Every structure is written in C-alpha cells, then in structure tokens.
Amino acid sequence: MNSLKRAFGLVWLILGPLVIYGLVDAAIQFIDPLGKKDINNPVVWIIIIGIFTPIAIGLMIFGWYAWKGDYDRLPHSSAELD
Amino acid sequence: MEVYLEFKYLSDMTLASIRRIIAASSVGTMIEWYDFYIFGMLAKTISLEFFPADNPTAALLSTLAIFAAGFIVRPFGALVFGRLGDKVGRKYTFLLTLILMGGSTFLIGCVPGYKSIGILAPILVLLLRLIQGLALGGEYGGAATYVAEHAPVGKRGLYTSWIQTTATLGLFVALGVILLVKSNMSEAAFTAEWGGWRFPFWISLLLVGVSVYIRLNMSESPLFAELKSSGKTAVNPLKESFQQRANFKLVLLALFGAVMGEGVVWYTGQFYAQSFLETKCKLDFEQSRTILLWAIAAATPFFVFFGWLSDRIGRKWILMTGMLLAVLTYRPIFGYFIDHSIALDPTATTIVLTSDLYWKFVGLVFLLIFYVTMVYGPIAAFLVELFPTRIRYTSMSLPYHIGNGVFGGLVPFIGLLLSTSLPGDPLVGLWYPIGITAVCFLIGVLYLDNKLDENVMD
Description:
The structure holds two protein chains of two kinds. Chain A is mostly helical. Chain A has one domain. Helices cover 67% and strands 0% of the residues of chain A. Chain A contains two helices and no strands. In chain A, 23% of the residues are buried. By secondary structure, chain B is an all-alpha fold. Chain B folds into two domains: 1-233, MFS general substrate transporter like domains (Growth Hormone, Chain: A); 239-451, Growth Hormone, Chain: A, CATH 1.20.1250.20. Chain B is 78% helix and 0% strand. The termini of chain B are close together. The A-B interface holds A 1, 4-5, 8, 12, 15, 26, 30, 37-39, 41, 43-44, 47-48, 50-52, 55, 58-59, 61-62, 65-66, 70-71, 74-82 and B 60, 63-64, 67-68, 71-72, 75, 244-250, 252-253, 255-256, 388-389, 402, 406, 410, 413, 416-417, 420, 439, 442-443, 446-449, 451, 453, 455, 458.
C-alpha cells in the first residue's frame, strides 16, 4: 500500500501544473471583451487563476510529500506533530 | 492526565447543557448561512437595484461581489478568524463573526438603490458582501470546534452533525422566507426600490439578536479554557498550521482527500441541481423551488444519522461511499431530469411536471442531497479529530472553506465553461464535479485513516 501511495504522489505532482496550464489556456480562449457571459469576463478569470494557482501548488506539495513517504503512516497524537 | 481532565468536565455536563450548546451553536451558524444565501437567491433583484448592466463600473463591482466574496474572502476569513479563535478563544470569535454577518446583512437591506445614490450603492453593497464572506469564513470552524470540544468520546460525530445540518437548514429557511414574502405581495411590490425583497435582509437582525443573546450566555470551550489556563495556546497559529510540515501535510490531506470532494458533492446536490432544473430542464420556477424544499426536508435527518453512524464505524468509509455514489450516478440522474422535461417538448419555454413526475423528481433530488448528507454529516468530526486543540480552529477552517467555497463554489462557473465549449451534451457540466470527486475519492481511499481519535484534548 505504501508503495502505491508513493507512486501516486508523482501523479499529484504532475496534476498541479496541468491544472494551472488548463486554466490559463481556457482563460486565453474565452476572455472576450464583447462577450456577456461570466466566462468572457477577464476579472473572473484573474480571481479564479489567482486563487487556484496556490491550490495547484498545494497539490504539487501534497504529491511531493506523498512521494517522499510522509503519508505512509498518519500521526495518531499531537505529540507526533511536534 | 489529559484523558482524566476530558472525562472530568464531560462527566460534569448534563444532557441539557450539551443540548443547549449544540442548539446555540447550530442556530447561530444556520443564521449565518441564511444571511449568505439570501443574497444569492435574490441576485437578480439585487443586480437590478444596485448593479445596472449599462454601467461598466457597477457591472465590475457586481462580478466582484459574486466571485470575490466566495472565492477569496471566505478562505481569508478562515485565516483571520481561525487565528483569532486559536489565540483568544472560540466563544468570542464566533460571536464576533455572527455580529458581523448579521450586521452586514441587515445593512444590505438598508442601502438605497442605484437610482437614489448612484455608484455609492454598489460600492456599499460590495463592501458589505465582502464582510459577509469574511464572517462566514470564520463562523463554521468556530462552531464545529466548539461543539466537538464539548462532546464526549463516541458522540463527536453525532453532536457535530447538528452543525452540519445548518447549511441545508439555512438554505431551507432562506427559500421559505423568500417564497413567503413573495407570495404575499405583487411582483411590482416585491421588486420596488424599498420593496419586499428587503424584508429577508431585515429579518436577519432579529434572528441574529436572539442568537447573540444565547451565545453570550455560553462559556468558553473547556478544552481551550484548559489550554489557556496552562499557557499552552499557540503563539502563532498560522505559522504552526502552515509552516510546520507535520501539520501542513494534514491540512493538504484534509483538503484533497476529503473536503474538496465533499464541497463539489454539496454544491452539485443543493445548488447546481436547482439551477439545472430551471435553466436546462426549463422547469416552472415554483416547482423547481418546491422540489428542492421537499427533498431538503426529507434528507436533512440523514446528516445526523451519518454523524451518529460515523461514531460507530469511522468517518472515512461513509465519506468515500457518498463520493463514489455521486461519481457513479450523477449522469444517470441528471439525464433523467432532461429526458423527462425539456426533451419531451423541446420548444417549450416553461415545463410544468405532472404530479407523478414531480414526485419522481423530488425523489431524485432527495438522492442527490442524501449523498450530501453522507459526505457532509461526518466532516466536522473528521476535521476536528485531524488537528490538535491549539491550532484546530485555523487548521480546519482553511481547507473547509477552500473545499466548499472554491471547489464547490466553482461548480456553476465550470459547468458554464464546459457547456460553452461542448454545447452538444447537456450533461457536460457534470464532468467537473465528477472529476473532482473521483480524484478526491482516490486520494481519500489511499491516504486517509479510518481510525477515530478518542482524545481530542491533545
């Protein structure tokens, strides 16, 4: 199980940049000053990319930790967190 | 020693006092949700009143009011009030969030329209909406932590599940109040500058007043009080939560292995379903609203059931089963909605369901909300048990509000994005909640423990 957890860590590590790329690509495709929908509005995209980039980086860190074996065993008391 | 302390004060508590704690915490949180929802439900009237589309600045402020309050300010509120709750205490922090939420909601109802004060109207509404988002970000973590820290071992899931019912009940009350006000006046009287649409905002002041009075008479969480008297409260909860690898990895696990999936299942069941019935299926306004009301009323007890069940069999597999069911059945359920409404008469502008079909729709929306109860009922106990007392408020609030506010809140936007890209498939918008839930299911199954933490004192 632990080797599976570590192997999937690489998947999460790669998924992070893919999410950012996907959002930027969609923003370029859909931003349209003449459009009336939310998806044409650059402000919406700035907010979404701005908030999702740190989350995607968080997913990469999660993947890194998983790959390094940090999740092989979860702590069972606060003493283990210190 | 710590287990002894926990045992001592919990044994001193009577059933009546724990009920009072749950009721006081839940009512306040429900009112916060009510306040947050009425803005969204009255968005059409509010935009006409405050954000005229022909003024580009007002339109920009409208976008910010809708998107920034949910996506940016809620997680930010989780950080601000989480820090305060871990330093000052749970009681005064969630009292403050309640006052901020109630005050800003009431004031939204008092702002004169764009016709009277011009651009000042949308600016004031935006500011008040941001305060609402900030307050909501701080409320939930406080209420869940407060109840959990009063709950005896073996009943944490059951007691915190009452907090979990509040978001749904808040939606129920908001829907009910708006329908009640609307049904007692003409459309013109409702949408006038000082018309009936303002009543739900004004009612908030009364609700919050009662709740503040109740909460003022409550004492501080015993676990936090013990921590404070022994001088062990966190000096810098933000640093401890997010800069210490041992704790930060748990924050990430909570977000990606549980709350991210829970958030999208929640929003899909309670919000996307309603907008899907109205916009894609072209269902009659009142029918779509009452379908949701019936389904919510029938499903709400299951929040408590799954909270109770999670005390017996663990939180993990209930959360994961709810997510798996959502992944497997979303497309068939939403496909049924399409096939039995607009597909029967593609030229219709409004579809009115027959009684038989109406109740079938109620049953299916109930099923969607039933999944919500599986993933949302045990989540507070799960989060509380994942983090230590001194940084609990901060650590659990942020993943909760990113999972629900950002991942969940984006369900309608990404749905629109997907249906614009691939207009041929009316169900294409479901790939976002299905995809996010599937990833979260995989992470949860792989990395989460099903172990119940008996001692949350540490």
